[in-house]
Amino acid sequence: MIEATLAHGDEAKKQKMTSEPEVGTDTKDREDALLDEIAMRHKKVLIRRTGVIHGTLPWHDFRNATTWRRAVQIIFVLINAYIATAFYFWVRHFETNAAGAPPIRPEGVEGWLPIAGLMNLKYALTTGVMPEVHAPAMLLLAAFLLTALLLKKSFCSWLCPVGTLSEALWRTGKRVFKRSLYPPRWLDIPLRSLKYLLMAAFLYVVMAMPAAGIEAFMMTPYGLIADVKMLNFFRFIGITALITIAVLMLLSVVIPNFWCRYLCPYGALLGLLSLLSPTKIRRDPDACIDCGKCAKACPARLPVDVNRQIRSAECTACMSCVTSCPAQDALQLALPPKKIVAANGDTAQIVQRWRRRKLSGAMVAAMLALIVGGIIIGAYATGHWQTPVPDQVYRQLIPKAQMLGHP
Questions:
Q1: Is pTM beyond 0.70 here?
Q2: Total domains present in the chain
Q3: Are residues 101 and 23 in the same domain?
Q4: Residues 186 and 128 in one domain
Q5: Domain region containing 217
Q6: Tens-place pLDDT, residues 268-322
Q7: Which among 54, 68, 112, 159 could bridge 361 via Cys, Cβ 3.0 to 4.6 Å?
């Protein structure tokens, strides 16, 4: 009789939660009541993350990974804006044949020369000799490849200015149109293959070049001022290129990360390397309440809510899924967990399982700064950061850069 009464009471409570999720205690809002209902439906205990409000961490919370990522994105965009401005005035000094010493050349501009970096990387690995021309391009490429090996494809969502612009475009489009568009699966998969085809084409061309050919190319007039040619592409952009860029930007407004997802060969290479990364987005089924918020938050539309770990090359470690998760230790960017047995609701054991395994947003930001900054500082210390091309050579080549064709 007592068991029947208790069962009837539980059923009545469950019906009440289903029909009136907005009704609750003074400390619960509709979102919290809905999460409790989902946990009850799946017969799980919801252990809320400390500081969670409306099912997620507020932006000003120190543990909010999205806030750290936004900060890193802003800093990197500002750094690139400075590099672009400084490089423009450096080029103009030689174009106008100005008197006196030229401004300091920002070597970081070579981060925008991934093909030169890839060529020099092959040259260095083949010969064991550091290239003289565009060495910073190789060193920055190596830094970004290392981030993929350690922190998934975090370069794309944390550092890349193009990725930052792409994200800003689709988030703006979602706010304006209240939704984003996604191609159907039968079209999405072939489209994603395009970036791997482009990557394969670039790798084939570079890998086919012998080390002597790479060295000779770098010493040609075109090779010496490849960075200037890159700047001039945008300064004197043609109508076809301008229309192409405009179309890509418009598509990015309605389709999240269109360029990054379908066409970027750089991201394709980083994505393949990221498959070797020991850190992955990992879900703990014993802490998860199966609310599905993580999958909805993922811009790559990965099935975060059903897999124990995300192995996909499309994962950029943006940690949007982690930030959206309301349950303690249910989702994290982490190393493999400790082999500790725990059950749903066993908070102590679940916490111990992930102790010293998961990475916070602050840790990811610090590791990115350490990897990229460390390689740059090391290059400065060893004298490999500055390109040893005399100013006299630049005075001869830069004014006629538009007339120099690819050898």
A1: yes
A2: 2
A3: no
A4: yes
A5: 65-273+366-403
A6: 999 999 999 999 999 999 999 999 999 999 999 999 999 999 999 999 999 999 9
A7: 68
Over the stretch 90-109, which tens digit does the pLDDT of each residue have?
Answer: 999 999 999 888 999 999 99
**How far, in Å, CA of 386 to CA of 132, rounded?**
9
Q: How many CA atoms lie less than 13 Å away from 262 in the CB half-sphere?
A: 16
Phi, psi dihedrals of residue 273, rounded to the nearest 5°: -65, -35
37 lies in the same domain as 71: no
Residues 165 and 223 in one domain: yes
